[in-house]
Amino acid sequence: MKEYVDVLIDEAKIEKKLQELAAQIDRDFHGEEIALVCVLKGGAVTLVHLAKYLKSPVTMDFLSASSYGNGVKSSGDVQIRLDLTNGIEGKNVLLVEDIVDSGRTLAKLREMFLERNPKSFRICTLLDKPDGRVVDVPVDYVGFEIPDAFVVGFGLDFTQKYRNLGYIGVVHFEEE
Ligand code: IMP
Ligand code: MG
After folding, report:
1. Using one digit for the tens of pLDDT, what is the confidence trace for 25-63?
2. Which of 18, 111, 118, 170: CA 20 to 30 A from 3?
3. CA–CA separation, 147 vs 156, rounded Å?
């Protein structure tokens, strides 16, 4: 099987959307410091590009979580492999994600983060696949709603590849 990738959202559209989201986030946080956190690896690209456009003072921190599933779908059994290095108690936390699908990963992480008593906790995702939702989780900032297709690029991978694409593409498979 050989795969090919079709452009779904081009780079210019993504950057424009991130500027709009950043402006909205700046307004909502009224100049207070924001602790940007993301789950490696997918969310890192969105976090970095969003951060360029934020005028609020920000810090950045990363965690790594494993979610056992079949590779394409997450199971929701989320285990932290590498935790944040900065505490989040009393901070305005903005969790940045690449995509929300079933919502299982985010729901679990939200629970874990809230136990650490941040001042506020919000979620921003570049992409949302509402059709895939199994667990309800409040998402405060959404870049694009997309149909239930498997997408890559801008941090998202298929078997660890394509994270470096500047655009979001849909993966198609063809028989060789
Ligand atoms: P869920 O919301 O718990 O189902 O899982 C979301 C995670 O699954 C994301 O952070 C991605 O790592 C992965 N994921 C879901 N949909 C896609 C996709 O279309 N392409 C690549 N990864 C995806
Ligand atoms: Mg992810």
Report:
1. 999 999 999 999 999 999 999 999 999 999 999 999 999
2. 18
3. 15
Contact call for residues 83 and 113 (beta carbons, < 8 A): no
d(CA 118, CA 91) in angstroms, rounded, equals: 5
Choosing from 10, 101, 136, 157, the catalytic residue is: 101
What is the 3-class SS of 106-158, one letter each residue? HHHHHHHHHCCCCCEEEEEEEEECHHHCCCCCCCCEEEEECCCCCEEECCECE
- 52-83 in b/e form (b: 16+ CB < 10 A) is eebebebeebbbebebeeeeeebebebeeeee
Domains of the chain in sequence order? 11-146 (3.40.50.2020)
Distance 81 CA to ligand 1 centre (A): 18
Residue 100 bridge partners (DSSP): 128
Mark whether 131 is an active-site residue. no
